[in-house]
Amino acid sequence: MTPVHLAILLISLAGFAALALATERHAEHLLGRLPAPQWRLLARAIGWALLAIALALGIGAMGRGVGIT
Length: 69
What we know:
Radius of gyration: 14 Å
Order of helices and strands: HHH
Distance between the termini: 16 Å
Helix content: over 70%
Number of helices: 3
Number of strands: 0
Largest sheet: none
């Protein structure tokens, strides 16, 4: 596994974790309480931004065909 692959994996994992914490069900299960709506909105924005960064990194490193996949 190259450093680019590892970076894409870790950034994607962080993005999906942020999106999971943005949902009421998962946030309450993982944190033991329901976070404030502003916090969940911020987590959702950060999650999507991290996934977009991972996508851009994948496309830049491996081309459109493989990078999107």
